[in-house]
Amino acid sequence: MIRMLASVTNPEEAEIAVRAGADLIDLKNPKDGALGALPAGTIRACLAAVAGRRPVSATIGDLPMEPDGVATAVAGTAATGVDIVKMGICAGGDPHACIAAAAKARGTAALVGVILADMTSPTPDLVDAMADAGFIGVMLDTGLKDGRTLRDHLPDDALAEFIGRARDAGLWAGLAGSLRLADIAPLAMLGPSILGFRGALCRGGARGDVIDPDRVAEVVRSVTASGRAPVGTAT
Asked: Residue 86 catalytic?
């Protein structure tokens, strides 16, 4: 079954997403990159707005694959009290060392790795490294927000292979990356754990705009119709 992740930027958007029925509230700053980080104070304000009604994740920013910097960002984000810390995985540097460093720095927060599919390949060794380090999940996303979606970078059979690999490793598998309403039904057939959205929730469809309650509700309905798990159901 599938859960719907809504990326939000402030407490007001978090409240809209909760009321519309999103399963996971994801905190990020879309004006600062694919996985732009919000200030700690904003994260805490969003947590207060959600008030435990949904799990909350937060991104650590678009960082180079350098272990010390990743560990510092993971520790700082985890200290805000979020349920899940999301770290991006891209080409260059030492992704495996960063995965290990994040695992040591996470505190009580869970970890999810986000592989930017237009910048690096979701290889089995990366997925296995996350599982070995105690991550709970792995997502595919896109780093270049240029109008192309995840499905423009990877065909459905490659996405299905990724989902199966993640599940075999004991991780839940998420898909994001400028997804549109039209992508929901075909992606749902592949059996992901999570479908994540930002631009599709915003007025005019631009990820830097504010989210619109009607758009959020429309995406929730579409994911529901495609086989969504009830709120609170474990993946």
From this structure: yes
